[in-house]
Amino acid sequence: MTLYQRIGGEAAVNAAMDDFYIRVLSDPMLAPFFEKTDMARLKGHQFAFLSQAMGGPRKYTGATMQKAHSRFSIEQRHFDSVAGHLVATLQSLSVSEDIISEVVAALTPLASEIVNTEAASA
Question: N vs C: which end of the chain shows fewer Cβ within 10 Å?
């Protein structure tokens, strides 16, 4: 059984995306990244991406992670905050810690493609 099936399939991923983006858009550090974003389009891409990453039926056909994020100055702290919101979302939906760990393990390597800016020195 795939991770996508174990997490609850399409309904669960859609519920997670809705809650996830509420959290992200409420985060003052992350919200500015989404000011000019078509959120319906982004959610569609995100759903397809997560579906594919977790072994689901939808295939992501958008830009590479590096290209999709290249117009933003993304530091590791931004990536970590997004990952934290995803974990909190999955926890709020009563997803088991084992599955959450698998999701995190599948997505963590993407930091090297998304993070494109060194942290500003204090």
Answer: C
Class of domain 3-114: mainly alpha
Query: Cα separation of 115 and 96, whole Å?
Result: 28
Domain extent listing, the chain: 3-114
- If you average pLDDT over residues 8-13, what whole number do you get? 89
The pTM of the full predicted model, rounded to 2 decimals, is: 0.87
Closest CA to 27 of 81, 77, 103: 81
Instruction: Give the tens place of pLDDT for each residue, 32-47.
Output: 999 999 999 998 888 8
pLDDT at residue 121 in the model: 59
Contacting residues for 48 by C-beta, under 8 A, at least 6 apart? 58, 59, 60, 61, 62
Rounded to 5°, the CA angle 46-52-56 comes to 110
Phi, psi (5° rounding) for residue 29?
A: -75, -30
